[in-house]
Each structure stands twice: as C-alpha cells, then as structure tokens.
Automatic annotation (TrEMBL), chain A:
Cofactor: FAD
CDD domains linked: fer2, FNR_iron_sulfur_binding_2
Domain FAD-binding FR-type span(s) in chain numbering: 21-124
Protein name as it appears in the record: Stearoyl-CoA 9-desaturase
Coiled coil: none
Native source species: Streptomyces subrutilus
Any one Gene Ontology molecular-function term assigned to this protein's record: oxidoreductase activity
Entry-linked Gene3D superfamilies: 3.10.20.30, Nucleotide-binding domain of ferredoxin-NADP reductase (FNR) module, Translation factors
Keywords noted in UniProt: 2Fe-2S, FAD, Flavoprotein, Iron, Iron-sulfur, Metal-binding, Oxidoreductase
InterPro entries: 2Fe-2S_ferredoxin-like_sf, 2Fe-2S_ferredoxin-type, Beta-grasp_dom_sf, Cbr1-like_FAD-bd_dom, FAD-bd_FR_type, FNR_nucleotide-bd, MRET, OxRdtase_FAD/NAD-bd
Domain of life the protein comes from: Bacteria
PANTHER family: NADH OXIDOREDUCTASE HCR
SUPFAM superfamilies on file: 2Fe-2S ferredoxin-like, Ferredoxin reductase-like, C-terminal NADP-linked domain, Riboflavin synthase domain-like
From TrEMBL, chain B:
Domain of life according to the entry: Bacteria
Gene Ontology MF: a single term: oxidoreductase activity, acting on paired donors, with oxidation of a pair of donors resulting in the reduction of molecular oxygen to two molecules of water
Lineage: Bacteria, Bacillati, Actinomycetota, Actinomycetes, Kitasatosporales
One of the GO BP terms on file: lipid biosynthetic process
Annotated organism of origin: Streptomyces subrutilus
GO cellular component: membrane
Domain Fatty acid desaturase: 67-334
Extent of the signal sequence: none
Protein name: Fatty acid desaturase
InterPro entries xrefs: FA_desaturase_dom, Fatty_acid_desaturase
Length: 336, 372
C-alpha cells in the first residue's frame, strides 16, 4: 500500500539486488579464460540461492545488447566452495549470442538473472564402485562439476575434442591423472577422427561394468544409448542432451498469444519461442533446447509439432508445451 | 476536411514513397537499438524511484515550509516522470524488446488511477490507430469538447473552457473515466454489462489504492505533518495533472493540425496512414529537459509515426522526419510550449461558440456523448 503500484522490493532492488527475498540474481565476479573459445564465469549468487548438486545446470538470464536472453549452463564449481560463489564454464559457439558475450565481453560486476539449479544428470546417493565419464566438447562441463565434487576409487574418463588445446580444464585433468585420481583418454578428433563407440571395448574394456555418465553432441548420445541398450546395461547409462535433434516439419499457421493479445503468422519450423519473441511477447525461456522446461506454457487451442520428434500435440485442458522445441502445426493459441 | 487540403499536391506514388522512406528511418533505429538504450531507461527508472523516495522522506517534515516546498516539487517531478517518460512509453511497448519482465508493457503498472490495461486499449489501440478521425478518435475533445469547425455545435459546448479546466485539474480521473467510456456506458442497459462492471471495478480498486497511498498512508506516516503532507501530495497530483494535460493538448489541438472525416480512412494505405499521423500531430520545441519532462511527447509527430520506438530516439529521428516534411512540402507544426498551449486553449474557446454551418454531419455518437 505504501508504494502502490510498485512493490517495496522495487525500491530495495536499487540498493541490494542480491538480498534474501529478492528475485534470484547473481553478480559476475570474474571471467577466466579456459581455452581459446571457452571461459569460466564466477558468479556470486543472491542470498536466495539454494545450492546445487554436482552435474546440475543453472538457467541464467544475461542482457546482451540490452536484450535479456536466457540459457542453461552446467555448474562446474564444487558444491562445497567456501566463498559461496558458483562457476559455469561456457564455450563460445559460432553465432551464439550469449556464449560469445559471456566468453569475450562479460565484465565483472555485471548482474545476471538466475534460477535455482536443476537437472537430474547427477551422481547417485550411493557411491558406485567404478565410474566412466564419456564426454565430448563442452559436454565435459557437468562432469567437471562432478569430478571436483567427489572422489571415486576408480574413475575412467574418455574425452573427445578437436585438438589438445581445445580440451577444457586440460591442466586440471592432467593433475588428477598425475595424482592417480583419474585415468584419462583424450580422443583428438581432428587427427583421430570421430570416436566410434565400439572402440570403447578397447579403450575401457570393463565399460559395461561401470556406472556411466555421457554428455556431448546428439550423435554421441544416440550412439551411446544404442550401445548400452544392445549390451543390456542401459540402466547404467546417464545422459545429458545439450542440443535437440531437430526434424524437418511442415505446416505452420496463425499463432495467437492470448494473454498478450497478439496474433502472428508462423511457419512449421520456427520454434514458438522465437515466434513469440519476435512479436515482442514476454516469453519465459531457459536452455532453448528442450531440457530445462523453463519455457513451458499452456496450449489453449490448435496443435503444435515437437521439433525433435515430429510428434503432434493437440490442445486440451492442462496441456502444456515447451515453446522452445515446438512449432505451429496449424493455427494455435498459446497462453502467454 | 479542412477547407484546403494541405496534402493535395501529393500524388499517390509520392505518398507511398514517403511511407517507404519513413519505414527506412524506423528500420534504422531498430537495427541500432541496444545496450545504450536499455541503460537509458534503467537509469531513468532508478532516478525516478530515488527522487520519489527522497521527496516522500522530506515530506515527513513538511510542517517545516522549506521542506514542504522541496518535497512537493520533488514529488511532482517524480510523478511526472512516472507518467510521461516511463509509464506512457513502456505501456506503448517501446521497451518490450529488452525482454525484461520488469520493464514490459504487459507487466507495468503506473502511478495513475486508470489501470494500465484499460489505458493501453483506449490509447494505444483506438487513439493511435484512428488519430484525429472525427467520431473514431475520442481523444479529439475527449467526448466533452468540440475541437473542429466541422463538428456540430451544441449549447453544451458553451461551457467547454470550464470543462477543459476541470479536466486539466483532475486529468487522471478524466482519463480513467474516458478509458471506461463512461459517457457511453452509463447509458441505458450498458451500465449492467458484466464486462463494463468488471472494468469499472478495476478502476475503483486502482483509485482506492492510489488515494489510500497518497491521502491516507503517507500523511499518517508523517505524524505531526499529517495535514501538510496531505496538501503536498494533493498539490503534486494537481501539478502532474495540469502538466500532462497541457502537454497532451499540444499534441493534437494546436492550430494547423488537421482532423479527418470517417470516410477518408477506408482502404487507407500505409503511406496514407503515415501522412495522417504527420498532419494530425504537433510538436513542442524546447530544451533537452523540456523533452524529458514531456516524456518526449514533445516529439508527438515522431511518436505518432513510430509509437513503439524507444523515446530516447525521437530527437534524432525528428531531424530526418523534418527533412521529409520539407521534401514533401508539408507543414511541420511545432512551437514552444506556451505558444502551443495558448493555441490549443484558444481553439477551445473559439469552438465553444457556434460557427457557420458544418459541411459534414458528425456521427450520431457525438450527439450521444454530448447528451450524456
Ligand atoms: S527453454 Fe529449456 S526447455 Fe524450453
């Protein structure tokens, strides 16, 4: 009442954006280069941060050229970091607006928006006797979070990167190897070629007995899922998908964003998230690749197509869709 | 509709060409929009909040006359900033591209008795689409005044200088009533429609909150300064109302601004729409501070051409727009605030008296409004 139509928090945010009870934010405290195109961003989260489990990711909202963009990144710092900071490690992908911004332009002192950590690509409660980490490229980031967090007795890691200098955390990994805490095989795909999953037999003969965490591009994950299933050990495999498989879709139609009262034409291949954002609708989002469910919105009428599977979802009471991986499969109405 | 059509010398092709040139100006700004603009609006919002906080703080001691003066002045400015440069422009969606939920047209609520939602409909949708079309744009005289020779005169109009003055003093309530289309809706059965009732309720809620804040809670918080703080907030609201009313009058009422008849907009092309915005709006010239305090509505012409471009860009856009006015030999109506305010008021007085027979019959709605 004292501050209507604003909230007291609107005033408090001016002085103390990281206080308890504020919308969750963080302040970038350092940006440390890792490789030519990857950097670790150290963030001090606000008081409301609940803490993460090794292997989880965080949704982060960064203002790039004045526009707030949301992405999800794995947390690479250990869970017991004394100073309360967290770290994400970001690899700049070509044309990636947020990743390039964080790696090359982000300045200490900048505020970013955060969500609580999420994701179930994590270690189990009971320690497995033998562990295998199979990663490629930036797929190493959630695994690094795990490696830094807990020591296992028997850990093998196979990591793929184009060249030695592209291996993120290379020094730290080699230190672990020197201390006898890790057995590591690097596959340099520029010279060795892509990893053929059957080579696992030769690289890690007892792979099937190991609890395995695999993270990397879709091709690697697909191959791993097939391989583990074939050998009847699918339950030992944990995967994290960073990129959706996108199938070609047809159709499209008029999309109505009913809460905002905007209607625009959409084709059958553009994610509804992009369609809405182009029409200036305030769309929630996160990873933009179908993993974080930060973009879930009720579908009130019409039908949408899942860009990963081609599956059609029709409207109905309580039907929710992920706008980042759904495109219009005809006219539809989205409550946003 | 005015005796001589000031755009008669333009061919249809020229008008479309003009439209394309204006589109190009718009695209240029959009391509360049970015961090600097976002930083601007954030800075303005934070300055407004700080100014309001400090002023309210000072008013706790308002029994002390210098504190009263200082606090009242600060609060008036803060309220003007909230309504003009911040509220009006955010609610136009000028800052939606930032995707910041705190600075978005769908979430913003302003320090004003008309709820954002309703104002956006009557202002953004109706007024900006049908700018200066008699019978369609109710901003023309707000349904209580006659602002063009061609509108039919009614004895009710004799009092319009007085109506206008009262409207200026209680402008935010005038706007709330206007957004509710009170004149029309108090009629007959409409009053009972559930849709109207829901909207009237929303306005009632908003008024209650605003009044409670300004005239009960803050005065109470000031303890011994209760009465002086009450007077201060009342004064600040009065100042803000008169100021916004004056600025808004300058946008479409000064002499030289054209109005259009209903028929003229059927099948209107993009170029013609632009042209109507150009001829139907007027600017205020002045210093940077002046533009800021009007929420850049001093660049009314530019605002009407591009209502969703960030307000901090209107000044640079104005240079290019003005060049187009010259190129196409059109009159760019502008002048300093006192001159424009005088001109608008002059018109209000002049048209309170009947003139020679209007050439065009005004729609019956007008009658209805007057009768209400
Ligand atoms: S944005 Fe993460 S699932 Fe859609």
């Amino acid at each position: 009442m004292v501050t209507t139509p604003l909230l007291p928090s609107d005033y408090l945010d001016l002085v103390s954006p990281l206080r308890a009870g504020a919308d969750l934010r963080g302040r970038i405290e350092a940006v440390q280069p890792e490789t030519g195109d990857a950097a670790t961003v150290v963030i001090r989260p606000g008081r409301g941060w609940r803490g993460h489990t090794a292997g989880q990711y965080v949704r982060i909202g960064v203002d790039v050229d004045g526009v707030r963009l949301w992405r999800a990144y794995s947390i690479t710092s250990p869970t017991n970091r004394q100073d309360g900071r967290i770290a994400i490690t970001v690899k700049a992908i070509p044309d990636g607006k947020v990743s390039n911004h964080l790696v090359r332009r982000a300045k200490p002192g900048t505020l970013v928006q955060l969500h609580q950590p999420a994701g179930d690509f994590v270690l189990p409660q009971a320690k497995p006797a033998k562990v295998l980490y199979l990663t490629a490229g930036s797929g190493i980031t959630p695994v690094m979070g795990m490696l830094r967090d807990i020591e296992f007795d028997d850990v093998v890691m196979v990591h793929c990167a184009p060249q030695p200098q592209d291996v993120i955390f290379r020094n730290e990994l080699h230190d672990l190897v020197a201390d006898g805490k890790l057995r590591l095989t690097e596959v340099h795909t520029d010279t060795d070629g892509m990893l053929d999953i059957v080579r696992l037999d030769e690289l890690v003969p007892d792979w099937a007995e190991r609890e395995a965490w695999v993270c990397g591009p879709a091709g690697l994950l697909d191959a791993a899922e097939e391989h583990w299933t074939e050998h009847g050990v699918r339950e030992r495999l944990h995967t994290e998908r960073f990129r959706p498989r996108i199938v070609v879709a047809g159709d499209g139609g008029e999309v109505t964003f009913s809460a905002t009262g905007r209607t625009v034409a959409a084709d059958g291949a553009t994610p509804l998230l992009d369609v809405g954002e182009k029409a200036s609708v305030l769309m929630p989002s996160g990873c933009r690749m179908g993993i974080c469910f930060g973009c879930v919105t009720p579908l009130k009428a019409g039908a949408v197509r899942d860009l990963r599977t081609g599956e059609i979802t029709e409207a109905g009471p309580g039907v929710l869709i992920q706008t980042c991986v759904s495109a219009a499969a005809g006219p539809c109405d989205i409550e946003q | 509709m005015t005796a001589i059509d000031p755009t008669a010398h333009l061919t249809a092709e020229q008008i479309e060409e003009l439209g394309r040139e204006l589109d190009a100006i718009r695209d240029e700004v959009i391509a360049d929009r970015g961090e600097r603009d976002a930083a601007y609006i954030r800075k303005v919002i934070s300055a407004q909040r700080k100014l309001e906080l400090v002023s309210r703080g000072v008013l706790l001691f308002s029994f002390f006359p210098p504190a009263w003066l200082l606090g009242t002045a600060g609060l008036s400015v803060a309220k003007i900033m909230d309504n003009m440069e911040i509220g009006h422009n955010i609610l136009h969606g000028q800052w939606d591209w930032m995707r910041d939920p705190k600075i978005h047209s769908t979430t913003w609520e302003w320090d004003h008795v008309s709820p954002s939602e309703q104002w956006k409909h009557s202002h953004n949708e109706l007024h900006h689409t049908y700018t200066n079309v008699i019978g369609k744009d109710n901003d023309l005289g707000y349904g209580i005044m006659r602002v063009d020779e061609d509108q039919r005169w009614h004895p009710f109009h004799l009092g319009q200088p007085l109506w206008n003055f009262i409207n200026a003093c209680f402008f935010e309530y005038g706007i709330a009533a206007y957004d509710l289309e009170l004149g029309k809706n108090l009629h007959k059965r409409r009053r009972k429609s559930p849709e109207f009732r829901a909207r009237a309720k929303a306005v009632g809620r908003k008024i209650r909150k605003q009044v409670l804040k300004d005239y009960v809670i803050h005065p109470l918080l000031s303890g011994p300064s209760f009465l002086t703080t009450l007077a201060a907030t009342f004064t600040a609201n009065l100042v803000r109302n008169i100021w916004t009313h004056s600025v808004i009058m300058c946008g479409h009422f000064p002499e030289g601004v054209q109005v259009f008849e209903r028929r003229s907009i059927t099948g209107e092309t993009r170029g013609q729409w632009y042209l109507r915005q150009m001829m139907g709006s007027a600017n205020i010239s002045g210093s940077k501070a002046m533009h800021f305090m009007t929420g850049n509505l001093s660049h009314q012409i530019e605002h009407h051409l591009f209502p969703d471009l960030p307000s901090n860009r209107y000044a640079e856009v104005a240079v290019k727009v003005r060049a187009l006015f010259e190129k196409y030999e059109l009159e760019y109506v502008t002048g300093p605030l006192p001159k424009q305010v005088f001109s608008a008021w002059h018109k209000v007085f002049r048209l309170s008296l009947p003139n020679k027979k209007p050439k065009v019959k005004t729609p019956d709605r007008e009658q209805e409004l007057v009768a209400a």
